[in-house]
């Protein structure tokens, strides 16, 4: 659980998480925006189906993979949230191609 | 990517302190220079979001953080091109850079390349570290800097190293609450660090560091000599179990567990380029082998900053300038004498910035039990491989990390060993009773970041050129 500092300033951005309306700040990455909205898991692992959430926030761990505007397996911590963006968590078995 | 020139004298990869300083100096001295960075704004991780953080109260992040703005300003005026949002997936020996930007890939040639890929948090494998709600302390710091987000509910910090204490201090400044800090610094580290105290005392970090430590200790309960850690929960972390010394296991409620165990060089790109590397016993990690200018074993490729061994943010900017001066020399702009003369003040500043490093390395060296985890601990997060599986593979004759790849898929996932490599090396070395130097490290191949077929298809280059970048 994370919360925004009361005096954090910035422009509001409207986007959707799994079809639900959500709000973020303009400097947020998609992963930060999910965390700010109380989303606890981004994806399930392809191996055991275990839930995962962002771990490193800097592009290293790949635990933040989400589908953004219909493109799967995006590193949410490396993409900035944009107005109207459609973010979907990957709790099914879609896995990164390897 | 029409804003990029077809080729550059110098390409710098990574916009942290080393990359910013290198690109600035090179462009000021007339090299056509591009700075490629995966992030959307300059600063690297240490000065992350320094130009646009929503945390406007300067005392929250501290004056060391705001120093990053002193690097960004001159960079913007230097005339260097800047390509944020660029993921570099290959650097070839022929100095072609494979990169993706906005969903399209391209190959960018340069005459010299400086890798300034910085550091990553050392993997801290404990049982349950893959549970949602467990993250790196560095990750929490990025959330604070970029988004003004702080952990709420029951917050536990655990581990060792300057960044852990800095994050705690910043949290307190921001008005956030921390339940407990579980300090895993081994007792004997203090004794071993003492011989280096003199140099550290003259470093200028001492007063600042002590003040910060005291401020945190006054406000947060710190449990020292923690020898075991475990995260538990159903679908996400709910509690942290720990042991103090040989004491009984204790349980704490936790909604967020922030782990930290120091930082290590981010070596994947250098490794895949074929740069020679060596085991650093003091910092317990593999580092690319470089000379005093950051030059690697690959002609035309240098490394500046923490990517060539952890020295900290201030050292990184001086190392960036030294690498840039050497690039100017190699490209025929400066003769050797001028390079050496111009480097003198930067070398002096670098020496000063590195003073006391041995003390910090020794004091915050992580305990063996956390580097060589117990059997049930997941070592490879991507493929969910446990320490036991690695040990069993050693029993079957596996002697190094490259063989664990074929045995266990360990290191074959999308993170390409970034979060398992250091642990796999330590576990194999321990099981075989040899030094990690003997065990080696993953031999990596480009692309070092996954690229999509669509990105590949967008490459405007001829097929043999693509092949050269992908399989040199
Ligand atoms: S959170 Fe680790 S890659 Fe995004």
Automatic annotation (TrEMBL), chain A:
Protein name: Molibdopterin-dependent oxidoreductase YjgC
Pfam families registered for this protein in UniProt: Fer2_4
Record keywords, A-Z: Oxidoreductase
Domain of life: Bacteria
Gene3D superfamilies linked: 2Fe-2S iron-sulphur cluster binding domain, sarcosine oxidase, alpha subunit, N-terminal domain
Originating organism: Azospirillum rugosum
Annotated InterPro entries: 2Fe-2S-bd_N, 2Fe-2S_ferredoxin-like_sf
TrEMBL record, chain B:
Domain BFD-like [2Fe-2S]-binding: from-to ranges: 378-429
Coiled coil recorded as keyword: no
Pfam families, per the entry: Fer2_BFD (PF04324), Pyr_redox_2 (PF07992)
Keyword Oxidoreductase: yes
CDD domains from the UniProt entry: GlpA-like_Fer2_BFD-like
Gene3D superfamilies (alphabetical): BFD-like [2Fe-2S]-binding domain (1.10.10.1100), FAD/NAD(P)-binding domain (3.50.50.60)
FAD/NAD(P)-binding domain span: 8-315
Keywords, comma-separated and alphabetical: Oxidoreductase
Protein name as annotated: NADPH-dependent 2,4-dienoyl-CoA reductase/sulfur reductase-like enzyme
